[in-house]
Each structure stands twice: as C-alpha cells, then as structure tokens.
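Here's a chain:
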Amino acid sequence: MKPTATLLRRCTLLAAVAATLCSALPAAAHEIWFAQRSNKIALIYGAGAHDLDMVKRLPKIVASQGLDAAGSPVPVELKPAESLVLVEAPAETAVLTAVMDNGLWSKSPDGKFHNKGLDEVPDATISGRYYKYATFLRKHPAGALAPVPGLKFQIVPVGKAFPRKMGETLTVQVLHQGKPVHKARVFQDGVTDPGGAHVFTGKDGRATIKVRNAGLNVLVADHQTGPEVPGQTRMTEHVATLSFMYDPPPE
C-alpha cells in the first residue's frame, strides 16, 4: 500500500519535530549536581560521568543555600579547592541547593555554540538562556519534602516514605515558580544513564521512578519557557537535578 500525501506530510512533520528535539539535547546535557568527593560534598558541573571545571564557573553560581531537617536556613559556603568546588556546611544540614545562570547560548548553522544571543548570531538554529538548579538531600527525609523556598525550578520528593534502597519507587513533583509542570521530562539518572530512561510528569507535576543506584543517584528534569527578553533568545531552559546517596553496606 502506498502512503497517502497526508501520511507523508505527517511523517515529515514528526521527523522535523524529532530533529528539533534532538538538536536541543546538547544544550541541555550539562547540569549541576552535588556529589561526594574524598568524603566531602562538592558541587559538580558536567555531563554524565564527565566532570568539567567547576572552579572557573563558580562566578556563574548566583545562589546557594542550606536547610536543616525542620526547613530552617543554615550557613553554607562554596569554596574552590584546586579543580573542585567544595561545600562547607554544618552537620545539621539536611538539604543543599544551588543555582547557576549559564548565560546566553546560540547554535550557528555550522553546529557550533556561541556564548551570545540572537543579536550576534541572527541565523542561530537554537538560541536560549540556560539556568541550572541543584538540590541535594544530605539527609533522607522521613516522607514528603516541602519545596525549597525561592528555588525557581526544582524536583521535590513527595512520596509518603523516602525509598531506602535501589529498586524502590520514588515519587517526585517538578515545580516551576511553585507551580506543577505538566509533561516535564524526569530522567532516572543523569550521571549513570544520561539522556536514557525517563518519564513525563502528569498534570499535577508528579512522576514516579525506580531508584537506579545503590550509591549516588542524580535525577534530572528539564523545562522550557519563553524568552526572558524577546528577540534576544528564542526560549529559556531550566534544568534541575535532585541528588542523594545511600551509604555502602558495612564491611
């Protein structure tokens, strides 16, 4: 049976949409997240298993904060240590967050990304302002966690009980400016399976995944909104991580 003209048009449209989504992936591939390095907590910038130089990007971190188990603020300081940015926070810190303004990026037709807007790259195939957000559960919550105040885009655990081991389920809610995000992608693990297994949030912004790892887990969610300055870029991208760890079994 020969395909109809209507079917061919639909296939062409779907192919174009898929190409657009795929071309957007490199810009969304880099995140910030918290992880343990040499028994200390570090703020990482990278893609998958590749850590990049966070020290030179430290000026792009526009906010960081810590909360104790009751949700009260605790003092937090980010300090460069050779190629790492380490976190200094008191023992009672239960939650850490950070926000990076990664600036304007535009992709020219030759496939190269430039740290510029449409005014300087008018023929860009992709142009956006990119924000990165990180939340780290230094201590596992007993149940649902309240959203972090002032964090524009975040992944929040909302299940009745936080999973205790790999393979258990975790329900999260993706929020933008405090409101649930419908059809946000939630990736199961951005470090061990970057761009891999993921689910979409429902109308309530919620999604349920299985905990992938027995050690470090880094969930990733992304969301696009309109340009902050029309004509400067075509969109604004928000990428958030939620990371937590399980202790190794006793020797």
